[in-house]
Design goal:
With 165 residues, the chain is of the alpha/beta class. Helix content is 31%, strand content 19%. It contains four helices and 14 strands. Helix 3 (28-44) runs antiparallel to helix 4 (48-62). It is globular.
Length: 165
């Protein structure tokens, strides 16, 4: 039932989608999220090699790189996902939308929380870079090619390099 709900989210979001089977088989975003969930399961069991192997396969077939340690909420939509990178300690809330070329990246090399945390219903435009252990509140909207390196409160819209709202 959760799978059907997940696929319906894509169908409701994308007017070009003609059927749930089309979404399940031909859209890279749902495949990437579902394979990530399998990889994350093995990661939690500390079977890191298996988890990374699945993540590598995922990247190879979808062009979307999600570290198996990342925590992904329900109904994440990755639209035209080529080039999306989600780091190990990233956390993504429910009902978020991420477009192609987005990076949820780190700015440190130490083994601590170093990637962003996204609240629920966050939208991140194509090519945006969200960097460091920062928090984006619920309902934030990040414009295409923006760079965000500081916490944003709920409902904030951020556009560009210097964050014009």
């Amino acid at each position: 039932m959760q799978l059907m709900n997940f696929l319906r989210t894509y169908k409701n979001y994308d007017p070009a989608a003609k059927s749930l089977i089309e979404i399940a088989l031909l859209y890279p975003g749902p495949k990437a999220v579902l394979l990530h969930r399998v990889a994350h399961f093995f990661y939690q069991l500390r079977l890191y090699f298996v988890a990374r192997f699945i993540a590598e396969f995922n990247r190879w077939i979808t062009g979307i790189e999600i570290h198996p340690g990342a925590k992904i909420g329900a109904r994440l939509v990755i639209d035209h996902g080529m080039g999306v990178v989600i780091g190990e300690t990233a956390e993504v809330g429910d009902d978020c939308i991420i477009f192609h070329g987005v990076t949820l990246g780190g700015v440190k090399f130490s083994p601590e929380k170093r990637h962003p945390t996204l609240g629920h219903k966050v939208l991140i435009g194509a090519g945006a870079k969200i960097l460091g252990p920062i928090n984006l509140g619920d309902g934030c909207r990040i414009g295409a090619n923006s760079v965000v390196t500081k916490d944003l409160p709920a409902g904030m819209t951020w556009v560009g390099m210097n964050g014009k709202t």
